[in-house]
Structures are given as structure tokens and as C-alpha cells.
Amino acid sequence: MDCSVPLSQPPAFLKPIPVPAMVDYDEAQAILSALADALDGPQIDIIPLAQANGRILAENVSATTPRPEADISAMDGYAFCCADIPTNGAHSISLPLQDCIVAGDQPSTHNRSTAATILTGARIPLGADCVIARERVTMGDGVIHLNTADALVGKNIRRAGEEFPVGHPLLKVGQKLDWRHISLLASQNIKHLAVYKPYRIGVLANGAELASDAPDYRADINTPMLCAMLESMGLHVQHHTVGSDSQAELRDSVNELAAQSDIIITTGGISVGQTDNVLPVMEQLGACCLFRRVKIRPGKPFTLMRQAETPVFCLPGNPGAAAICTQIFVLPFLRSISGTNPQQAASPTLSGRSSFAFSSPSDATCLIPVHYAQSGKEGVFSLVPSQGASDVLCFSHASGILRIPAGQTIKVGDWCAAMALSAV
Ligand SMILES: Nc1nc2c(c(=O)[nH]1)N[C@H]1C(S)=C(S)[C@@H](COP(=O)(O)OP(=O)(O)OC[C@H]3O[C@@H](n4cnc5c(N)ncnc54)[C@H](O)[C@@H]3O)O[C@H]1N2
Ligand code: MOO
Q1: Which parts of the sequence belong to the MoaB/Mog domain (predicted)?
Q2: Ligand 2 midpoint to CA 142 (Å)
């Protein structure tokens, strides 16, 4: 394949770089961000409101119906007109009762010098301007007796549009929807809405040790781990495990997944061993390498390729390294192209003081899973046990990933910021 085939808007530094070319942490992030900019944005789906939870809104929504929709009663009680209260200083008056108005009724005009029974949410009849709560009156024979001090214009009435009027901006493009937004959309009687289509991600693990009949079988940790991370983001994930070191099998599986995926993530087989087949197979398939390995620890073999328009993330097989590369590079990339507004797409950070000292080597940025806890007014980071590139126990104890750039040192008590580890 001609690797110079442009994406829709090729940024200069998305030109293929010779393999092997190792980049540093910042260069890797910059290439990913240029790739994100160059991709076509997500497509749009029209879906029923009942399926909108977790989806990303693809349209601005303004109010077409005010809230409340009309002047309504805030109490179960009696509606009357304050002008019926005598000005002679009487403490109490009696008003004959009218029919009951319930929510859903369109009441006729209020009869002066009477009180209409009214229930919470029911429309105030034209001509009434006060509601007295049921428990504040005494009942007579077809009349209510009320204290004149309770007669105040507007009392217990919610005015049309007092929460928001017609035209009020409610939600913006890029909002990730949850119950808070769905209640607003429901208030507008919206039955269908435009949301961004989630990307289809193909996850492919490979390695002979992953075959269930391998003489030295190893459980596939990366596939369920990646599926969980990606599905929590609302992405559609398909996965395939190639339990062999056969290039032909790997090639067939990549082709099969690529036909149904917008983005491919491979794990394993990306280092320099004799059975590390991902790079040669992707090259046979005409993929271009955008970077080959990153100066990070763990995760050095992490490689980014592009097969036609499809980004291909090649993660190391070691599960700890695969988890960190996904959290630090892949998920932020996916959030940035998902249509989510940039504030929501940004990875949340944790700030606090380090309880440990650490020095990164001069040639690698270190990415360390850390625990975060509040101590007094400050957050404190501490190391979690067993943080090798193949370890996963550490993540159950970790709240974030601390990045210590190449050649830098943190001392006990230094102020640090870590990327929060989250399910989404
Ligand atoms: N000579 C060199 N050797 C290695 C280098 C290097 O620079 N020079 N880099 C090391 C680093 S760093 C890493 S990380 C690993 C990555 O290797 P691969 O991505 O090729 O991964 P594999 O060799 O296939 O597997 C490594 C390790 O991970 C286990 N694994 C693989 N897939 C899974 C899975 N889906 N679930 C659970 N565990 C998995 C596999 O069994 C191996 O134990 O390379 C170093 N070598
Ligand atoms: O970088 Mo590897 O990811 O340390 O084992």
C-alpha cells in the first residue's frame, strides 16, 4: 500500500515514519491527536429516548415547551381570588366550594367569591390567583373557612415557564446523556433524538499460549480487560483470540475483524521475538506505521498503525503494560473522537502529595499505578504492590496512573497530578 495516501486532512506529521522509529511520550500523544483530527467524525444515529442512556447527543436541544407548562397548583388545596377577601379586617372568611380540578383538566374560568378544590399539578383556573393548602382550612357544609392572612397573590402557584421558558437552551451537542439529561428530554416530550454512533472496536489477542489446548496454557486476560474498558465507554466491541503463532491465522483474523470494525486493538506479538507476528502481518496487509514503540515504562512495544482509514493500536501482551497503554493512550484517543464535548472527554485528574520518592530513567517516561487517599485537606499518593508490566493485581488497589517524565525525580512530599483510573 502507498502509505502516503492522505487521510481526509493529513497533518504533516502523520506521514509514515520509517520502521523502527521510537517516539517519546509527548510525540506519541501528538501523533494520536493529529490522527484523531484527521479522522472523519462519528456518524449519527436517530434513536428512541428509551435507548439514550450513555449515548452522546449529536444535536443542541432548546425548550419547545415551558416548565411548568402552565400556571399550576403546588399543593392539594383550594384555589380562589384574593380580591374576594374583604378589606374590613376580618380574620376569616368562608367561600363556597366548586368542583375539583385535577392534573390533566382544562378548567373553566374561576367563579368569583368561590373556592375550587384543586390538586397538585392541576392548572389554575383563569381568575384564581391563590391556592390555600388543604390542611390550612376548616370545612363547613359545602364551604371552606380560611384565615385571611393566608390569602396572598401567587401563593402555592407555580407559574408557567418559571423553571425555564420556551427557547431556553437545555443541552448541547457532545453531552454524554444520563438520567439528568434524559429527564430534560422527556420534559420536552422528545421521543427520538440524534446521537453519535459508537465506534466499533475489534480486539484481537494473539499468542500460542492462549490456546486452551496449549501445553503451557495461559488465560487470555487482555481480551476481557479491554472489552470491559471499552464497553464501559459505550463502544461496540467484537473480539477474537488467535491461539497460535501462525501469521496466516493472524492475517485472516485481522481481515475478518477489520471488515466489521472502525478501530482495531491487538495485544501481544508486537515485540521483537520470533513469534511476534503483529508488525509483519500488518505490513503484509498494507498498514502504515505511525510510530513503532514508545519511550515509556511499561509499554515500550506499543505501536500505532493505520490500515487504510482504520487506526490499529498494537498493545504489548503483558497485561499490566496493555492496561496502562490503554488507559493513557487508547481511551483518551477514543474519547476525543467520540463526539463528547472536550471538557467531558478530558481524562479526570487527581492531585496530591507523593508519599514516595521515584526517579525515571533518562530514556523512559514511567507510568506508575498509584493509590490516592485523602489525608486532612490534601490528597496523598502511595505506591501499590506489585507493579510489573505483566501484573494486574495492582490495578485493584490503584486509583490513578502517575506519569514521571524521563529523567525526572519526585521526592516525598512533592505535589503531583495523576490521571484518574476509572471504569469509563
Ligand atoms: N528482546 C526484547 N524482548 C522484549 C522486549 C524488548 O524490547 N526486547 N520488550 C519487552 C516488553 S517491554 C514487553 S511489554 C513484551 C511485549 O511483548 P509482546 O507484545 O510481543 O507480547 P508477547 O510476547 O506476545 O507476550 C508477552 C507476555 O504477555 C503475555 N500475554 C500475551 N497476550 C496475553 C493475553 N491476551 N492475556 C494475558 N497475557 C498475555 C504472554 O503470555 C507473555 O507472558 O516483550 C518484552 N520482550
Ligand atoms: O514495557 Mo513492557 O510493557 O515493560 O513489559
Answers
A1: 202-336
A2: 84
Cα distance between residue 311 and residue 222, in whole Å? 19
User: How much is the average pLDDT of 358-363?
Assistant: 98
Q: Kindly give the distance from the C-alpha atom of residue 243 to the centroid of ligand 1, in angstroms, as a whole number.
A: 15
Cell for 40? 472523519
Domains with residue ranges and CATH for the chain: 12-42+198-343 (3.40.980.10), 46-66+163-195 (3.90.105.10), 72-157 (2.170.190.11), 349-420 (2.40.340.10)
Query: What ligand 2 atom has the least distance to the C-alpha of 318?
Result: 5
> With a 6 A CB cut-off, is 125 part of the ligand 2 pocket?
no
Is there an atom of ligand 2 within 6 Å of 300 CB? yes
Per-residue confidence band for 391, with pLDDT thresholds at 50, 70 and 90? very high
- Helices and strands of the chain, counted as H and E runs: 9, 26
Q: Is 284 exposed, middle or buried (0-12, 13-18, 19+ CB in 10 A)?
A: middle
% of the chain residues with pLDDT over 90: 90
| Ligand 1 center from residue 179 Cα (angstroms) | 42
CB of 268 closer than 6 angstroms to any ligand 2 atom: no
Distance from the Cα of residue 281 to its chain's centroid: 34
pLDDT digits (tens, 9 = 90+) for 61-117: 999 999 999 999 999 999 999 999 998 888 999 999 999 999 999 999 999 999 999
339 lines ligand 2 (CB under 6 A): no
| Per-residue pLDDT tens over the stretch 201-240 | 999 999 999 999 999 999 999 999 999 999 999 999 999 9
Q: Is 318 in the pocket of ligand 1 (CB under 6 A)?
A: yes
Between the CA of 102 and the centroid of ligand 1 the distance, in Å, is 69
pLDDT in tens, 256-289: 999 999 999 999 999 999 999 999 999 999 999 9
Residue nearest to atom 32 of ligand 1 (CA): 317
CA-CA distance, 408 to 416, in Å (whole number)?
12
Strand ranges in 222-336 using DSSP code E only, listed in sequence order? 236-242, 263-267, 288-292, 296-297, 303-307, 310-315
Exposed/middle/buried for residue 242 (C-beta within 10 Å: 0-12, 13-18, 19+): buried
Q: Which residue's CA is minimally distant from atom 4 of ligand 2?
A: 298
Q: Which residues have C-beta within 8 Å of that of residue 142, sequence separation ≥ 6?
A: 96, 97
